[in-house]
Write a structure and sequence with these properties.
Layout lengths: L1 H16 L1 E10 L3 H8 L5 H4 L3 E6 L6 E9 L2 E13 L3 E8 L3 E12 L2 E11 L9 H20 L1
Length: 156
């Protein structure tokens, strides 16, 4: 009995302490409305977005979506998420994963800064799987996404 209780306690501790995040920020020479227009036009993602492609669903509050996520040349995954909150020209927040194992809370945050917009991609991860996972490749993928977004917006 002691062994079972110990294992359960360890699992609970691993679940509760499993936390990591990734963060990518870029300044785009355009107003937040122009950035938002490109960011939320999922149909044009194949033209410019090297990281995310919407393959199913509608990006609307409460909607469920599936993206093809290209982490790097060798790692492509389908990722499901629920759209939690949309504030036009400011925030797109989506969440997904497997509860207690590995969940994510993904945010695109747009902040006007004069004639420019600071775009932040921030993702928090929780769960037991976080202890065994390296988020660095995901952060690099989001850096590529931000650079591609900047190029696309500034070319329009």
């Amino acid at each position: 009995m002691y062994l079972i209780v110990s294992i359960m306690a360890l699992l609970v501790i691993l679940i509760l302490t499993g936390k990591k995040s990734v963060h990518s920020e870029i300044t785009i020479n355009a107003n937040s409305e122009k950035v938002w227009e490109v960011l939320t036009d999922m149909k044009t993602y194949p033209e410019w977005n090297p990281t995310m492609q919407l393959i199913e669903g509608d990006v609307k509050e409460g909607g469920k979506v599936t993206y093809q996520f290209t982490q790097d040349a060798n790692t492509v995954s389908n990722i499901g998420a629920k759209v939690l909150e949309i504030i036009p020209n400011q925030l797109l927040n989506q969440k997904g994963g497997i509860p207690a194992v590995l969940t994510f809370n993904h945010k695109y945050i747009l902040e006007p800064a004069g004639a420019t917009t600071v775009v932040t991609i921030h993702e928090d991860y929780k769960g037991i799987g976080v202890h065994f996972w390296n988020p660095e490749p995901v952060e690099k993928a989001y850096q590529r996404l931000n650079k591609a977004l900047k190029t696309r917006v500034e070319a329009k």
